[in-house]
Automatic annotation (TrEMBL):
Protein name: Homoserine O-acetyltransferase
Signal peptide limits: none
Assembly with partners or alone: Homodimer.
Pathway info: Amino-acid biosynthesis; L-methionine biosynthesis via de novo pathway; O-acetyl-L-homoserine from L-homoserine: step 1/1
The gene coding this protein: metXA
Keywords from the named record: Acyltransferase, Amino-acid biosynthesis, Cytoplasm, Methionine biosynthesis, Transferase
Keyword Signal appears in the UniProt entry: no
Top-level taxonomy: Bacteria, Bacillati, Actinomycetota, Actinomycetes, Micrococcales
EC class: transferase
Length: 408
């Protein structure tokens, strides 16, 4: 059975306790996902090496659904130094299957947004205190379905539905514990952009600047449809067992299929055609099989197989469902009136950006969001032929805008 991280800890690696917060290195084989190193108070940020996973208990959380999630823990990483008045803190929100490792720290492990954050980058970690928090429901250190419930067993099928408003409230408690009353900036792309936007509306007095990249004001019917196909792929895997598969075979086939479906929406048609066309995979023969079961693969099929197999080695299927359904809940105007009315409380300076070839979150959604935000908000275009994932690979195109408007 695979084991999963409370922050991708290295087995046998030194764990350092700072004021009861556990900080641990990230690389190597992960420890069991069903236990979290809990900590009642945060560590002194100056005492923890950059890019080290830390854990903080934030107490019980009353959810939008009416359910109560007890003794919640959040996993997070930090870089840089929090200044005396705690005014230089920048929150970077990860996307659906992301983790908290935005950029390199004390180790050489690469981060997933190094064009954005790091020494000398637009979010300069020599000037700003950067934090990234694993979303509630995740499997990289925060309480999620694989975590241990009060009865000593994994939450599994009993884990409650969490919305982006729930996850934002949880993150606000972590900010409180660190003494951060206001973020210098909150930045995210895709799901991370939805999380950033929720922060700016739910806690307008706590967000001075907000960058919302490659996401709109709500998840559309089409986006919910794509998401449902992914979660259903997992739920119909015989090994899923209603979500209570821990300790036995895991629903790897279902999770890999979910990733295939998602990845198609992350890449443009032009990207897939240009890279793969109708070419066969190596010596395989898609048109020469004597039976359907013996058919060889096209290159694009092999590519999707690879993407699915990569994810199952590092992610929990229940967390995939929990986070996907949190994204399905994304609707900034829910219960807040029309979109302009819902966004009116936001006082942050905004940067809105879209990838021109995005076929998951269409640029039109970013334009609609910008038009509804208070004041004059332009939409910056990221030119990237690959599609939605351009928000990750081509974030450097926003360097001048970020430096001019946020980090000059």
């Amino acid at each position: 059975m695979k084991t999963w991280p409370a922050g991708q800890l290295t087995v046998g690696k030194r764990e350092v306790r700072y004021q009861m917060t556990i900080a641990a290195a990230r690389q190597g084989a992960p420890v069991s996902k069903t236990t979290h190193p809990h900590a009642p108070v945060p560590a002194d940020p100056a005492a923890v090496p950059d890019g080290t996973v830390q854990y903080l208990r934030i107490g019980d959380l009353e959810l939008e659904s009416g359910a109560r999630l007890p003794d919640v823990t959040l996993g997070y990483e930090t870089w840089g130094t929090l200044n005396a008045d705690r005014s230089n803190a920048v929150l970077i929100e990860h996307a659906l299957t992301g983790d908290t490792h935005v950029t390199r720290g004390a180790s050489d492990e690469p981060g997933w947004w190094e064009q954005l954050a790091g020494p000398g980058a637009p979010v300069d970690t020599e000037k700003y205190f950067v934090i990234s928090i694993n979303i509630l429901g995740g499997c990289y250190g925060s309480t999620g379905p694989s975590s241990t419930a009060p009865d000593g067993k994994p939450w599994g099928s009993r884990f409650p539905l969490v919305t982006l408003r729930d996850t934002t409230e949880a993150e606000a408690r972590l900010a409180d514990a660190l003494g951060i009353r206001s973020w210098f900036a909150v930045i995210g792309g895709s799901l991370g952009g939805a999380r950033a936007l929720e922060w700016a509306v739910s806690y307008p007095e706590r967000v001075q600047r907000c960058a919302v990249i490659s996401v709109g004001a709500s998840s559309t019917a089409e986006q919910i449809a794509f998401a449902q196909a992914q979660t259903l792929s997992i739920r119909q895997d015989p090994n899923f067992k209603g979500g209570d598969y821990y300790g036995g075979p895991e629903p790897e086939a279902g999770l890999a299929l979910a990733r295939r479906i998602a990845h198609i929406t992350y890449r443009s048609a032009a990207e897939l055609d240009g890279r793969f066309g109708r070419n066969a995979q190596d010596s395989e023969a898609p048109l020469e099989a004597g039976s359907l079961a013996g058919r060889g693969r096209y290159q694009v099929e092999s590519y999707l197989d690879h993407q699915g197999n990569k994810l199952v080695r590092r992610f929990d299927a229940n967390s995939y469902i929990a986070i996907t359904e949190a994204l399905m809940s994304h609707d900034i105007s829910r219960g807040r009136g029309e979109l302009t009315e819902a966004l009116a409380p936001a006082t942050a300076e905004f940067i809105v950006a879209a990838v021109d070839s995005d076929r998951l979150y269409f640029p039109a959604q970013s334009h609609a969001l910008a038009e509804a935000l208070p004041g004059e908000v332009a939409v910056h275009t990221i030119e990237a032929p690959i599609g939605h994932d351009g928000f990750l690979t081509e974030i450097g195109q926003l360097t001048s805008q970020l430096r001019q408007h946020f980090f000059g």
